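Protein modeling request. Please complete all fields; requests missing the sequence field cannot be processed.
Requester role: graduate student
Desired output: 3D structure, token encoding
Chains: 1
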Amino acid sequence: MDMVLLITVLIVVFAVIFDFINGFHDTANSIATAVSTKALKPRHAIMLAAVMNFVGAMAFTGVAKTITKDIVDPFTLTNGSVVILAALLAAITWNLVTWYYGIPSSSSHALIGSIAGAAIAAAGFAALNYGGFIKILQALILSPILAFAVGYLVYSIFKVVFKNNNLTKTNRNFRLIQIATAALQSFSHGTNDAQKAMGIITMALIVNNYQSSDDIQLWVQATCAAAMALGTSVGGWRIIKTVGGKIMKIRPVNGVAADLTGAAVIFGATFIHLPVSTTHVISSSIMGVGASHRLKGVKWGTGKTMLITWVITMPISAALAAAIYFILNIFL
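Delivered output (332 residues):
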């Protein structure tokens, strides 16, 4: 096996591993509210999320194309194979560290920061496609703010519409609705998050001259969708515990409002082909709902931890990817 083919195979393998880890790392967020309110048993919630993630991943490819070409240009990337491999290894490492400590970190931030860091290590800051990279950064910054605002608004409307309803009956009805909203949010997660690994594999195929366009091949799409679904089936209990209980005490009506908000924001980003952090969108929607419900009921300390992680993930991932690139470049 020649070196180019070997590195390409390694990239595909690590991209699949990244998607698998993303499955149990990030998908936990999409079902956390339904598990927290006991709308779904954990096992049923995870299986629902796995199926809906797979379906969502097979439905779109726009975000994958953005990852392929908007951070760096794969057609001119210096030492592209090593850059991509270093980026994947760095993103996987950071995801495992944050998963171990139960921190709802963003796989999107980790991967995007890692690609940028490895590319800069290879060819300097000129390697970045600044137009596309800034557009992605804007989406990553604005999406959690939008999720917080929409979550606040949606729950404010819920309070007015259902203020005279019997609390017990309302919670029972919303617990049933949560099954549908959890499925919707899992589907939306698949439409955005699973595409990131598709973009990485496509970038590698372009860099190594196995294809000449940014089209996402069906085998790439199906492989990444299956890896995401399989990872989801493993579950991410540490992060479910954080998102489902450490932000606020979630009732079914809160969960439905947060799920609808998260799905709407993620779908919106997918529609305009922009990657967002599903972790931070979902967490921010819960905080927005919580602020609308009762400001003091939100555990802002957890939100502060998430914000710090949001800020540090990209630069840490970039630095880690740059270091891994220099190490790999010695041997490859």
